[in-house]
Amino acid sequence: MPASKILMITGDFTEDYETMVPFQTLLACGYTVDAVCPGKKAGETVATAIHDFEGDQTYSEKRGHNFALNATFDSVRAEDYDALVIPGGRAPEYLRLNADVIKSVRHFFDAGKPVAAICHGAQLLAAAGVLKGRTCSAYPACRPEVELAGGIYADISISDAVSDGNLVTAPAWPAHPSWLRQFMAVLDAAALLEINAA
């Protein structure tokens, strides 16, 4: 039943897998996905970073690919989208300083639309003030931000995801199968509600 139009907000040094895999998977499943970055236009690229788990105390970081944006941030309106995807990586730490990004994130929560965030994407949710009383997974280093924002941190396996109403979150890219499966279930449930309300 894919008919949903999804907004992906990303930026330079977004995590490579957490951007490319959901973008391509959702497109392959029939959803429309517009990937945008503040200050950049459709056709421009963002640099990605590959975060890996190699036995160190934290993830390692290497240069990834150039990910092509297919929409222009200044031209999109959150109201025109059915759902939001927030990849992790380095981008959320500075995207959360952008008032227009924060306004867009809040729109999806105020309207009760599906939202999927992974890894450091929780930094953006915390900054937008949308986590109070919500269960949220994230990369473990983001746990203090989730809890300081009033969220309930889901301490789950790195390959698991958790849903809390319209919000689907996961700790990192090894959770893609569970995270995307849960997100698509939320998308389909939201589409059914819309059809039944029409």
TrEMBL record:
<comment type="similarity">
    <text>Belongs to the peptidase C56 family.</text>
</comment>
<keyword id="KW-0645">Protease</keyword>
<dbReference type="GO" id="GO:0008233">
    <property type="term" value="F:peptidase activity"/>
</dbReference>
<dbReference type="GO" id="GO:0006508">
    <property type="term" value="P:proteolysis"/>
</dbReference>
<dbReference type="InterPro" id="IPR002818">
    <property type="entry name" value="DJ-1/PfpI"/>
</dbReference>
<dbReference type="InterPro" id="IPR029062">
    <property type="entry name" value="Class_I_gatase-like"/>
</dbReference>
<feature type="domain" description="DJ-1/PfpI">
    <location>
        <begin position="5"/>
        <end position="184"/>
    </location>
</feature>
<dbReference type="Pfam" id="PF01965">
    <property type="entry name" value="DJ-1_PfpI"/>
</dbReference>
<protein>
    <submittedName>
        <fullName>DJ-1/PfpI family protein</fullName>
    </submittedName>
</protein>
<keyword id="KW-0378">Hydrolase</keyword>
<dbReference type="InterPro" id="IPR006286">
    <property type="entry name" value="C56_PfpI-like"/>
</dbReference>
